[in-house]
Amino acid sequence: MTTRSLPRTLLSVAASATLLAGLAGAPATAAAVPVDGAAGIGDPYWPLDGNGGIDVSTYKVDVRYGLATKRLRGTTTVKLTATEDLASFSLDFLLDVSKVTVGGKKAAFTKTDGGHELRITPTQPLAAGSKHSVVVTYDDHPDRHSYAGEKNWLASRTEVVAMNEPHMAPWWFPANDHPLDKAVVDVKVTVPQGREVIANGKLKGRTTGKRSTTWHWRADEPMAPYLAFFAAGDYTIAKGKHRGLPWLVAVSDGLAPADRAASMKLMKKTPQVVSWLEKDLGDYPFSVVGGLTTGLNPGFALENQTRPTYPAVGSSNTSLVVHELAHQWFGDDVAVHHWSDVWLNEGFATFMEWRWNETHGGRSADRILRSYYDNTDAASDFWKVVVSDPGADKVFDSAVYGRGGMALQALRNRLGDEVFWKVVRTWLEEQKGGNGATDEFEATAARVSGQDLTAFFEAWLRTPAKPAATADNGLG
C-alpha cells in the first residue's frame, strides 16, 4: 500500500482541530515511545527464532566463499518494514560483524543471547510502518559456530552446501529466521574461477574475473529463510523445460562415477514427478524447479524452495524425490505457522509418497496405513508422540512423519476420495503463499466436508495413544 502525504491545507486543518481539542480539555494523545524489538517472533520451541517489530521483504546476499579456507565474507542488504516504533531491533545471525548501516547511516550493534542475536540500534528510532534498508558487513568461518545444539555448516575443502532445518540462514546471512516472515532471496556468491554455484530460483547472471567467478541466483517467490541455500563446488548440470516449466538439476562431480550417473538419473525424474503431483495438488506453486545432489554426506534430503537438496541415494529412490517435491506445496508454499505444526509438512509429504506408490504398481496408501497400525504395538513410543505438538526434541521424530501420513489416509478413508481431495485442494488454495496451523487445517476439513471431525483429530493428532480401530477414526 502506498502512503500518501496529506496536502498542506489538510495538515493545517488537522493541526487546528488538535489545538482546539486541547483547549477544550480533550485528552492529548501521547506519542508512542520507541521500544526494543523482541529477540524472538514467539515460537515456543525456539524462543530466539525470528524477531519482533520487523517484517522483511527482501534479502540481497553478496558473499565470497573460500572453499579451501571455509571463510565467508561479504554483505547482506535486508529490506524491511518496522511494524512498531523501534529504538532497536534484532536479526538472527551467528557470524562476526564489522559494520551495520540503516538507511545509509552507520548504526550501533552488539551480539546478544550467546551470539545468535545481532541487536541493531539506528541513529534515529524507526517509526511503525516505515521502510528501511539495513546493510550488514561480515567476515567469519561459519563452521566455528553453533546454535540450539546444531553445527550446521556442511563443507569440505572442495564443496559446500548450506542446507538444514529448522535453522540454516544465520550461518551465512542475517535473517528474521522463522517461517512466519517469508521474503524474496537474491544471492550472489563469488568462488574461485572454475567452480560452480547452485542456489534457489533462476540463474540471473555469471561474471568471470581473473581468479574468481560470481554467480547470481534469484527466486521469484518469497520463502522462509531456512529454505534458502547455496552450494559451491564442481557440478554436472542438466536443464530443460517440461510442459513450460523450466528445470535445472545438478550433481556433484565429487561423487564416484557410478554414483554420479545414478544421481543424475534420479534428479532428471524431477519434472515428471512435479507433473504427477499437480494432478492431485493443483499447479506447481513456483516459477522454476530442480534439485541438487551433493557429494557431501548430510544424512538427509531437504525441501529447499524450487531446488531440493539430496545426498547420493541411487537412481531408484523416486519416493525421496516425491517427498521433497511434495514439500514445495506443503512446507514451502504453505509454510508452518509455528514449528509445532510441522506434521502438516512431513505428514503430507509422507502421504504423497504413499500416493505415488499406489499409483505406480505398489501397495495402496490404505494398505500402508493398516500395515503401520497392525504392526505397531500399542505400547510403542510411536504412539506416545503428540503429533500436533511433538516438542522441539521430537519435531522430526518418525511419528511426525508416519502418524502424520496415517492421519491423512485415515481422513481419506473417513471422507471418501472426492471430499478428501477437495479438502486438500481447498487448503492449498486458501493458504497459498502463506502459513498454516493445525487448527486451521482442522477447520478447513470440517467446513469442506460438512462433518464434525473433532474426535477424529483428537484421536490422531492430540492423543498420545493408539487410535481405536473404528470407522469414525478411518479404520473401520
Keywords:
single chain; 476 residues; alpha+beta; Neutral Protease, domain 2; eight-stranded mixed beta sheet; 22 strands; 26% strand; globular; Aminopeptidase N; EC 3.4.11.2; Peptidase_M4/M1_CTD_sf; Aminopeptidase_N-like_N_sf; protease
Protein model, in words:
The protein is an alpha+beta fold. It has a domain of 124 residues: Neutral Protease, domain 2, CATH 1.10.390.10. Helix content is 27%, strand content 26%. The protein is built from ten helices and 22 strands. The strands form five sheets. The chain has an eight-stranded mixed beta sheet, with no helix packed on it. A four-stranded mixed beta sheet has the order 1-4-8-7, with no helix packed on it. It has a four-stranded antiparallel beta sheet with strand order 10-11-16-13, with no helix packed on it. A hairpin with a 3-residue loop joins strand 14 and strand 15. Helix 3 crosses helix 4, helix 4 crosses helix 5 and helix 6 packs across helix 7. InterPro entries: Aminopeptidase_N-like_N (IPR045357), Aminopeptidase_N-like_N_sf (IPR042097), Peptidase_M1 (IPR001930), Peptidase_M1_aminopeptidases (IPR050344), Peptidase_M1_dom (IPR014782), Peptidase_M4/M1_CTD_sf (IPR027268), TAT_signal (IPR006311).
